[in-house]
Amino acid sequence: MRIPGDLSRPVPSAACHKSSHHAPAGLLQPLPVPRRPWSHVSLDFVTGLPPSHGHTAILTVVDRFSKMAHFVPLPKLPSVKETAELMLTHVFRLHRTSCGRCFRPGSPVHLYLLE
Description:
The protein is of the alpha+beta class. It has a domain of 78 residues: Ribonuclease H-like superfamily/Ribonuclease H (Nucleotidyltransferase, domain 5). It is 27% helix and 17% strand. The chain has 4 helices and 3 strands; from the N terminus they run H-E-E-E-H-H-H. It has a 3-stranded antiparallel sheet, with helices on one face. Strand 2 and strand 3 form a beta hairpin.
């Protein structure tokens, strides 16, 4: 199989060294080290999956201290309110962290979720 064009030609230097239109990024700062499990979590959504039992997305919640993870199958991407309710149901209910106390009945966050 022959590839059209001359691949042995050198690439023009202008194509290799384009100037950036962004300010320099600066130094990266490390995240604080958690002192106990489930005090700091990260969450992300895996989307675009083929349907499986009616689910096409996964909420992934990872504890930064222990690296333990929860994977919650979802039929679609949730709203902010639905995400908070999923965190209550699948994470804070099980681990009872201080963050979970923010969601206890009568708290401002809980009242917001009821609206």
